[in-house]
Amino acid sequence: MISLNRKQYYLGSYRNFDAAVKARKAAEEHIEGSFEEWYLEWRKKTRRTKKSPDPV
Prior knowledge:
This protein is mostly helical. The protein has 2 helices and 2 strands.
């Protein structure tokens, strides 16, 4: 989870630490710019499917 302007954004749950760190770092890279647009696009790309157990 990451917070911006008093709003929390869920970054998912991960089976391993490295995947969680990767998601957090990706979010941090976009926090200064158009974060909300990036977040919505990122969520579309990382939705869990049967083929990919980890969102990232």
